[in-house]
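Q: What does the assembled structure look like for these inputs?
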Amino acid sequence: MSFYVALPLLLLLALVEAVVEPMFRIAGLQPNLVLALLTVWLIVRGQNEAFFLIPAGGLFLGLVDGAPLGTALIALAPLVLLQDIRGSQLTEGGLVMALIFVVIMTFAYHVTYLGVFILRGESGFGVISAATRVIIPTALLNCVAVIPLYWVVNMFSGELRRPGYI
Amino acid sequence: MTAGLILIALSGIGLTRPVENASYQLLSPLETLLRSLAEPIANVVTNYGDVKDLTAQNEQLRAENERLNSEIARLREDATQREQLERLLNVKNALKDQTFATGHIFARDPSNLRQVIAVDLGSNDGIKKGMPVVTEGNTLVGTVTRVEDSYSWVTLVTDVDSGVSALVQESRAQGVVSGGYNRRLSMEFVSQGSAVKEGDTVITSGLGGGYPAGLVIGKVTGVGGERQDIFRAVTVEPLASLSKLETVLIMTSFTPKKVVTP
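A:
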């Protein structure tokens, strides 16, 4: 799967998040497909490509969401840190690692958003109620989204497969 | 990270508006295409089989019910107001002279933390920040919180950052209706002695100048709290089906007033 496929795919997923997913929300919540794809891409394709895709994904999400442009960019930035942690590992866990990363990233992503909202003087954003009512259920939804995305990206990235991947 | 911070700062002073407007122009055909492709699937999912007709009928009845409830509430409000105003001042009903712009919802904020919708009317159409947004049945939807050239973002009443001065129509108990992460409304600061019961209608009070008085918000679905509590815990169900909205009315003639403490 070409690296250049990822850019239009990220844009499409950002649009799907804004237009299509709200029609199919579960208990008012929806998975973050851009975050899920970036996590999977990082695990399967490695850090060189993800390094360019993370800001692109953040920009695309920023263009379709109601928060100030740049918020999604910052919210996805911790993925780069996870990338560094992953880089230091000698063996990767593939799908399991993607699931762990997406859970961590869902927390980091939402906490960053909450931080930006609070810094902008918007009130009412309780961190604990956000965690129980939004972040944990969204992390579960993102885990569900990671599984097919991992399968697709992994299938089209056969040439990069190394021992240790599921 | 730095780029993100710079973009947020630029967004705060409006310098990213051209980029956001251009992206809207570029992406809106794609969004329309995606919506037209997804809507039939969404309909199949929600209205499987012959239930589709029943759902349409139900939607019609719901809209009719919403309109009638709104009408009843407005008539009740008119009567109460008339009584009060006859005694005090001869002020016109705030809602009568309002003008509206019809907007179509084309996107929703993908973040699960916010309840924000994008409407295809912007500053080019005379939309300004702070304008109240209602349904066709005059039920409160939210407020315009961000305006671009050709579209705007509306924060729904169910958003966690939303707070509307409200009163219970039957008992005239006052409070503030706030949203929450559970997409439900709660009415806060309702005094313990207030006679509030399930089924009562909650309307905007007009206090604070953010909304005109008399707009229907919803129905009381629960009243709780212990005797020793200062305030009663009142839960409110929005009258409008906010997750299924397609068209909204923006109250273009209403200018929110900024109340400054004396």
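Residues 82 and 88 of chain A are 10 Å apart (CA to CA).
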